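Please, is this right?
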Amino acid sequence: MDKVKPKKALGQHFLTDESIAHRIASTVDSNPLLPIVEVGPGMGMLTKYLLEAGRNLTVVELDTESVAFLRNNYPKLDGHIVEGDFLKLDLRQFANDEGQLAVIGNYPYNISSQIFFHVLDYKDSVTLCSGMLQREVAERLAAAPGTKTRGILSVLLQAWYDVEYLFTVSENVFNPPPKVKSGVIKMTRNAVTDLGCDERLFKTVVKTTFGQRRKTIRNSLKPLIPPGVPLPDHPLMGQRPEQLSVAEFIELTNLITNLRSQ
């Protein structure tokens, strides 16, 4: 079968540089017992290196043309190709006996944030997640407190993962070339099992404050406080969300929990 034609509607930009593909494939933990789910393999640029390493690999591909190409060119994938939408899958079905798996991919730019929110839903199973996405988004995921690129996903992911920005990839090694550079990240599950606060409220606090990121915490959090309950004179109240660490967001969440109980 001839090569797959990239489809704009699916955000397909096929990597053409073998050395970069090998480098990305190498970001996955070398533990042979850790199953790997590859998102959007396309024509298998990453896939072949993962198969060469003898990994327990399942690929998830939405594009029927790419699925046909993979079946014709990678017989080792027989029985391990899921034709469907990664965002709709229960990832626990791919885990090993310990309930763990890794996720990797050259992620479609148009849904990369949604992919990482989906991984976050399975944080107790996904012990490692790596791959390539738009550089701006990759930088945001790894952004430290005090940086302008820090956002909702930065905090939510860093609460549960150690996030590393590994390297930048030129737009000239893709077909077709995207209009932006790409970045490769690696997320490794940390030891946190309990945030020490109401996890649902934590998410609400993070999303609410970044939804009004130009405001101070004091002003953006008013809708979350019962009417008539005054906000305390606390140092965090004068900050803006991108300045706060995960620990400070947890402290803020517990502060709001206390105010709501008054």
